[in-house]
Recover the amino acids of this structure.
């Protein structure tokens, strides 16, 4: 007689999960976009990269971390009057969900951005990416809720909305950074279709990927439209401290008199990306069904955060706080060397493009007035396959623009980042890029004509 033994511990069939039974976000192309450039760079380490939107590493020093930490500890124990035991507890233990440097963040915004929020309206987050998700998760109450975004837009925002199960409705950027007429049309069309637009995401200063900035008058009109159409504005400002010339424009939040703006911030570009510290200013009043005040939107975001990351690491916050304290709460002064480097790199890039792609080349570009990026329009299709070929054959990496338009497989534009390369590397990289353009024009047989430098392909 044959018997079949019951499988013992460790002898059963290993669990196998079907991809189509996981959340849709894991199969969304957006999930691959965030990792694609790193993977290409790892496969082709000899290639020069115009892809990564990272701050320059030219001024990174390990001692900075220790110095900033000591500065913050001295601040707590000196002006703060806290005993050593309490200082150690603040650094080593789980921290307050809203953050332990919210007061310093509020002071920094007063000095650098012209508005001083109630520190209780500040939630310190694990990078700005978490701030985006917290806001979208809180605003999303059902399948009718949607969010608008000026397109093309930052890949990470589309990804955060995907995780929050919130559709993103694109609004044309136009020549002014946001097409206000298209914004109104999109809101009205969405409502006609039974959707409820909750907010519009915008990067007013040196946007990613276009590098475009909104004029001050456009900012004021955007705020008026937000009030008229009952929208919140999600203002993301990672690059605002890096103008190429002239004075900085006022943030939307500093112009906001009706609490229409939720301000998303990050210290990744100004202090250090490795700290992973961002924040959100959400000073909107929240009431219950009977109209009684229950607190600020920031309080509700903290509830979501408590179930997501519990708190932002106090040690990372302490490093950021030390930088703020050492520079009298202003990051404009703290990033003066970086700002000068980015200005110089942009000029080298623009001059190099003019030298290599004269009128008649079929290549054009926009001219940003700051930030990290510009967009190049070329007379052939750009996609991930061409990127891989460019890295392997021509040893130059760039970002295909279709990643910033959800659902598009390709475009005829590429984003160039100039923040991390040295001037000589920019020139060498442009020589290699020119080689790719010559090759592709010969392959496609496109005529030599000028292409208008418009950000919307």
């Amino acid at each position: 007689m044959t018997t079949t033994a019951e499988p013992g511990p460790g002898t059963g069939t290993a669990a196998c999960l079907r991809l189509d039974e996981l959340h849709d976000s894991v199969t969304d192309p957006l999930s691959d976009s965030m990792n694609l450039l790193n993977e290409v760079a790892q496969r082709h380490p000899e290639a020069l990269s115009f892809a990564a939107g990272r701050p320059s590493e030219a001024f990174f020093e390990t001692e900075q971390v220790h110095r900033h930490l000591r500065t913050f500890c001295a601040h707590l124990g000196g002006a703060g009057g806290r005993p050593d035991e309490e200082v150690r507890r603040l650094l080593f233990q789980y921290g307050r969900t809203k953050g332990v440097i919210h007061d310093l963040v509020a002071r920094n915004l007063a000095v650098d951005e012209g508005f001083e929020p109630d520190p209780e309206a500040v939630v310190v987050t694990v990078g700005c990416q978490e701030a985006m998700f917290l806001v979208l998760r809180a605003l999303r109450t059902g399948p009718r809720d949607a969010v608008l975004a000026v397109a093309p837009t930052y890949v990470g925002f589309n990804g955060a909305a995907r995780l929050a199960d919130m559709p993103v409705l694109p609004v044309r950027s136009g020549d002014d950074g946001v097409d206000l007429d298209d914004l109104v049309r999109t809101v009205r069309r969405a409502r006609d279709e039974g959707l409820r637009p909750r907010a519009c995401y915008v990067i007013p200063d040196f946007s990613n990927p276009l590098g475009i900035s909104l004029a001050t008058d456009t900012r004021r009109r955007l705020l008026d439209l937000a009030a008229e159409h009952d929208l919140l504005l999600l203002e993301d400002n990672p690059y605002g401290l890096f103008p190429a010339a002239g004075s900085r424009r006022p943030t939307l939040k500093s112009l906001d008199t009706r609490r229409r703006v939720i301000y998303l911030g990050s210290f990744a570009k100004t202090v250090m990306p490795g700290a992973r510290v961002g924040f959100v200013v959400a000073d909107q009043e929240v009431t219950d069904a009977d109209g009684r005040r229950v607190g600020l939107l920031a309080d509700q975001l903290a509830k979501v955060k408590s179930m997501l990351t519990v708190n932002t690491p106090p040690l990372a916050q302490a490093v950021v706080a030390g930088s703020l304290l050492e520079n009298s709460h202003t990051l404009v002064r703290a990033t003066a060397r970086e700002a000068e480097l980015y200005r110089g790199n942009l000029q080298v890039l623009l001059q190099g493009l003019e030298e290599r792609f004269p009128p008649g080349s079929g290549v054009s570009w926009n001219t940003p007035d700051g930030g990290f990026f510009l967009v190049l329009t070329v007379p052939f299709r750009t996609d991930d396959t061409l990127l891989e070929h460019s890295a392997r054959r021509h040893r130059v990496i760039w970002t295909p623009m279709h990643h910033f338009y959800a659902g598009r497989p390709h475009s005829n534009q590429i984003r160039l980042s100039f923040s991390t390369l040295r001037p000589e590397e920019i020139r060498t990289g442009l020589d290699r890029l020119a080689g790719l353009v010559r090759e592709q024009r010969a392959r496609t047989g496109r005529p030599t004509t000028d292409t208008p430098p418009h950000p919307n392909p």
Q: What stands out?
A: The two ends are 74 Å apart (CA to CA). DSSP finds 15 helices and 15 strands in the chain. Residues 447-457 have pLDDT under 50 and may be disordered. The longest strand covers residues 373-382.
